[in-house]
Amino acid sequence: MKKLIIIVLLSYTSIVNVSAKEENDIVNFYEQNTEFTAGLIYGILRYEKNTAKFKDSDCVDICIDEKVFFSDEYLNLPKIGIDARGDGLDIEDYDDLLLSLLNHLDGDIENNLKEYYGLKGYDIIKTIEKIYNEYPNDDLLVRQFPIPKRHRGDYQNAYGTKRSYKRNRSHEGIDIFAYTSTPVVATSYGVVEKMGWNELGGYRIGIRDLHNTYQYYAHLNSFSKNLKVGDVVKVGEVIGYVGSTGYGKEGTRGKFPPHLHFGLYKYDGKKEWAFNPYHHLRNWEKK
Ligand SMILES: [Zn+2]
């Protein structure tokens, strides 16, 4: 508590009456008295949550490297840890972590974010911020099956099986069979990161969502009218239509039966890797 007031006094001399007893107080304080917007704080906290489970330590929700959190023993590193309640600095205390993180990122926020999270992490945080700013009142974590109920075709757990067009590779996704021109919808809120032709995927769309996942929709017959890179899409919004495009130069169709190839790639804070969407699809299907 004392330390928060010292920081408050140093940075914002006109504001003194801040209670750091609860997470909300800290978030509200940063929203109201700094350049942090609600969307940006949401982006940072979601990104922290998304990457926490991939870190070595058993932290939950927010992870700060122990070496930088407690700087006393590591004098060459900048101090990050702040005791939010005056009950001792604790790397497992969510309020200490939250206050420390936001305080550390405050100031030249954009550059601090790039330095702390790297460019890829920064881009994902800005993506989540963008989604939040467009739909601040929606339940942003809802997910759904990529093809509307009445059009749904069959799919098998063929993730990882061999594919041999051009070179041998493993099948990084699930193929959902459906008639040409069946609508394809976004499985969650996200931002269109890639759109257009590639040889393997044909007409494809890549969406970056707020679960640190890149969703890949391939072999589309066509895209939803007016959709473009940078657009925020809502869960369930039509993004394109099932087709059989790919395996050749732009416009190639019919080299295989029409289906949606659906792939998921996770960014864990360090690297991006493909994982099997099959069980997610089975869950979303029930909705
Ligand atoms: Zn496929």
How large a portion of the residues is in β-strands, by DSSP E?
Answer: 15-25%
Helix count equals 7
Measured on Cα atoms, how large is the radius of gyration?
A: 22 Å
Instruction: Please name the fourth-level CATH homologous superfamily of the largest domain.
Output: Glucose Permease (Domain IIA)
Overall body shape: elongated
Order of helices and strands: HHHHHHEEEEEEEEEEEH
Number of domains: 2
Going by helix content, strand content and strand pairing, the class is alpha+beta
Terminal CA distance reads 46 Å
CATH topology (fold) name of the largest domain: Glucose Permease (Domain IIA)
Give the rounded overall mean pLDDT: 89
List key phrases describing it.
287 residues; single chain; 2 domains; 7 helices; Glucose Permease (Domain IIA); alpha+beta
